[in-house]
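Database export, one record per block. Field names are fixed; values are copied verbatim from the stored entry.
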Amino acid sequence: MKKNKIENFIINNQQWLGFIVVLFALFYAYTTVLFEPREVVLDIVYGLFFILLSVGLIQQFINESVEVKKIRFNNLDGLFVILGVFITYSLNHFLGVSVVLASSFTGLMGYFFIRNHETAIYCGSFAGMVSVSLFGFLEVSVLAIICAFIFILTKPLFKGYGGKLGTIAFMSSLIVHSIFSDEFISITTDFNMFLLILTTTAGVLVTYYIKHFFKVSAVFASALPSLIFALIFIYLIPDHSDYVVVFFSASFIGMSNKKRLRNIYFVLLSGIVLGLIYDVFIEFFNGLGGKLGLMALISVIITSGISMILEKIKMKKTEL
């Protein structure tokens, strides 16, 4: 009886529970980074980004409220999320394959062989990108189950936002990490800001162009160029291989639909925003899966916030 009550509560309140999960992941991550000391100018920029992030989320909350959505439990979706987690984790753990190569390869396998569940397996692959030094098979098993549940819970929400799948993976790995450990991996990477933003804008543009010009799935548009980029830089230009993960993160923004990024100017802007976000997030949450997607979703929502404000200003000018 108690189990049925819990299940009915989740089903009846799925829309808001799912929204709260995504909201928590975004705000927790951003506020953790926001209050770290840095230069005054950057503090102002990231403070402004926080306001724009809030505006974008408020607008999305209003949009979600227009249509009441009901949860539909699809056991196959859950199974393929779990499969994506273990394939990616195993490729990295046993074969030493780069996590970007492992994840993009898994996404392409989903596209070619399991088209109806490619999104689920791609989401799982992001969770499987967790560090093998922080997550053993017990932790990954728990992670896979939680990720599958959150994927199903949030499936109808944030439609068309690039980075949503990674945010689901991030939230899942954050929960598991909080249970089993309290340490993150320390990474010191000195990115060239020009190359960083060049890579983020290139990643967004290439993916967005492939998706909308060739009319292919968002999974294919993200996974294929990321796989090619990773192969080139890891094996041919290893001195700049750090930019592989940057491009991969940017590709998630390019998965967005045209309702979220209306034209080429907003596509470019989202890439620039990601570059600025990436530059400060690089020191945080290392070892968790989905961090790249989290940064992408933050960037898309910030850009959506800017778009909405500009639209309001335009409407007011028209009324005058």
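Remark 1: The two ends are 60 Å apart (CA to CA).
Remark 2: DSSP finds 13 helices and no strands in the chain.
End of record.
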